[in-house]
Amino acid sequence: MFHFWKFPFWRSNRLSPILDQEQEKQQEIEIEESELDTKTSFENMMSAQPSQQQLLVSKIQLMTPVEKALVLKSIQTSIENYLEVESEFISLKSFDTCLQDLISTMTEPTNFLDKKFLFYCYGLILRESLEKVNVKMYLIALLEMSHQVACQREGIALAVGLASSSHWEVAWAVLEQFGQKRIMTFGRKSVASKVMHDIYWKWASSTALLCYGQMAIHAKNSSLPWVDKIMSKMVYYFNYSKYDEVLKSSFLSATVKIAIMLKRENSGKGYMFKQIPNLIDCILIIFQKEPQEFFDSYFQQKSLQVISTLSSLQPGLSTKVKTKVLRICFESLFVLPATEMLAGNLSGQDIPPGIESLHNKTMENLDQLLQSFLSENETMEELQFLLQSGS
Length: 391
Prior knowledge:
Elements: H1 21-33, H2 41-47, H3 50-61, H4 65-81, E1 89-91, H5 97-103, E2 112-114, H6 116-127, H7 135-143, H8 150-164, H9 168-188, H10 191-194, H11 198-201, H12 204-217, H13 224-240, H14 245-263, H15 276-289, H16 299-311, H17 319-334, H18 339-345, H19 355-376, H20 380-390
Antiparallel strand pairs: 1-2
Helix pairs in contact: 4-6, 6-8, 7-8, 7-9, 8-9, 8-12, 9-12, 12-13, 12-14, 13-14, 13-15, 14-16, 15-16, 15-17, 16-19, 17-20
């Protein structure tokens, strides 16, 4: 059994070099609010209410195409009206009658509503619309909304993912069109021409990453070839887009969802995933960009879990890829100061809680990844090469 050095978890305001105040403030909010787990807090809340969820679905199924269209338009208007509202919750009294009637299935009339619920309803209606509703038109309208706010990006992705479970090829085509029209065009514009719409479309690629992650969660076993295509798109957008904390958060969130989906009931067993090494390369790039003076997020812990899951899929990782993973992980984690040394570097500040727990989980994940790599080597020569190259 391998024993590793301890390192600290410490959140710093110094998130990335040379940030203007507005961007720095935005990224600090992103770090605080982002949850790099399989589900957001809103999705966890919804999954805890299966009976009410089913009531909502049943009500949607009884709606006529005209009624669905009216509610979808009402949701679009509500999202646009409350986009700039800082609070994530909106009073139900703000909505029109048809939308209030639908929402009343899940909450009391006097309550406030999580903004993401609007996107959730939007996606459910599209999922349950198998005819006479222009799903493509409504998905395009959704993606044309602002991508500036984190809950907006997550909400758009949630709706796209739900719709894709019944309209996979339509959702894929819409994302392709969105990538060409907004992400690629924005990337090709000169710096001067970007100024006006910079914030509006700046994180559109991060929305696309979140959408692909949600599509993977809602994919069926028959969609495994599409999951490989999803990985390819994620790799492309990651490498094409300007790197920042928002992109990092969105990429990891999407990769976690893919890993969970493939691990779920061994759904990826027997399929040859060609894009796994490229996806892992992107994770390693982020690893190398992480601060070496402190432990800034849960990124390393989650990434190690993702790599471990992906490495178990076919065709498996080559010895060259495994040694690269170990080398970068070791170099990134072992240069960090020991946890007990942190107190002397904080000038009297308290050490944030959870350091030891995060440290233990991360080291356990690294140890499990290493043990997994070692067990997969078929010969002593391969094992020796792996150990020598990773050290």
